[in-house]
Structures are given as structure tokens and as C-alpha cells.
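Please check what follows.
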Amino acid sequence: MVLASRDFEVAPETTLDIDYRIAATRQEREAAFHLVYKSYLRARLGGMNRYEMRVTPYHLLPTTEVFIAQYQDDVIFTISLVGDGELGLPMELVYGEEAALRRRLGLRMAEVSCLADRRTQFRGFFPVFIRLCRVMVQTARMRGYDELVVAVHPKHARFYRRFMAFEVFGQQQAYPTVRNHPAVAMSLNFARIDRELPSSYDTFFGESLPEEMLRPCPIGAADCDYFRAMIDPSFKLAPLGEEEFPARNFAEAAGVA
């Protein structure tokens, strides 16, 4: 059963009470997928479906991990990390040649995807985003990936470049699975930031997280069967949609496809 959804602000003094981890149970994945569904629907990045979850084909792969931030009984933030594997990467729908070139260079990639939270405003929630991203990027390094890649709205590329040291490697394209909103492809190469030490480096890598916190929690066969019927229709037939909408939640505020 999908947990009930409610929008709320998280006061700064409560952020230390939030639990950050890799989703390990069906209920945790359901809550994350429902949160992405609500967030994308509100931002007009996705359409309605009867399951009220945004499940992608990549979520059924053992190379995908779902990260959640939970406050009390509520999953309030989620990010998915899709390791390059059986289906490749989600962005290859648009950036196939660019991804293939990076593979030929010997790079192991993981794509950041399905980012969503349960607020109406980004301000005041930034510490939660940072802490969950720290779990995600340290997990990616532990798994042996060379870099993270992401497709973001062009107007948010500056944030990813200036704050998180991402670089653009694929020019602006219409992105079918988010109703043809525009996107650019960006990458965060770990070897590069180890050399350059950007200002955000210590934020994400200054303190190593406990290994048990980063332990793999691959989806099981029973849960694959359970979620398979719920795959979002946009991954079968990409819908058309308008490109510009006012920012109403983090999915649009951060621009992750």
C-alpha cells in the first residue's frame, strides 16, 4: 500500500532527526515511487496513472538503487541511482551517442534520476537534499563508478555546475519521458574532482559514511514482479507536453529528469 502523501516544511532543527538510507523494502520503494509520481504530476513532468506511482523499467534492475530520506513515518525525499547495465541509462533515449562515447573511453557511469520531495518550496529543505546526495555519491564511488551523469533542465545547469561541479557533455534536447521538457546532459567525474577539489568536495566526501549505510539492497524477484505492471506509460509511448511551467516543487526546481 502506498503511504499517504502530504506536503509540509521541515524545520531546520528537525533535519538531524531524518533517516537517510537505501530503500530496502517494498513499502519503502512504493513510498518513493509515489512521491516521484506526485512531484512530477504537480510539476507537469508526468501524467496520471491508476497506480499513482512513477515506476520506470530501470527500477526493476539490480543495478538501480533508490535513496530515501524519512522523517517519522514519511518518506520526504528520494533520488534513484541507475547504474549502467542491462538497459543502459535512461538518458540514452536522447543522449545515446554521448553515452556510447563515454563507454568507449572506459568510463563506468551511473545516472541520477527520479528526484522528488514532499514540499512546495525548495528553500529551507536544502540540508536534506545535501545529506541524501552525500549518501548517493559515496555509494556510487563504493560501487566503482567513475562518474555520475544526469539530465537536467537547462535553466538549472548553472546550479549543478557551480555548486556540485558537474560539466555539460550533451547539448539541449527535448526529453520525451518528461513531456518533452528541455534537458541538457551533465557529468560529475570523480577523478576530475579529486584533482580539482571544488568547494563542495568536503560537503560530500569530507567524512566517510559507515559501510553498513551503503550496503547494497537490490530489488528482489517478487518485488520486480509486483512493480512490473506499474511501469509508467511514458516509457512505452512518450507523451507530448508544453515545455515551460512555473516551478512548484523540487522535481522542477532541481530539474532532474
User: Anything to note?
Assistant: The chain has eight helices and seven strands. The longest helix spans residues 26-42. Helices lie at 26-42, 92-104, 126-142, 157-164, 190-196, 201-205, 221-228, 250-254.
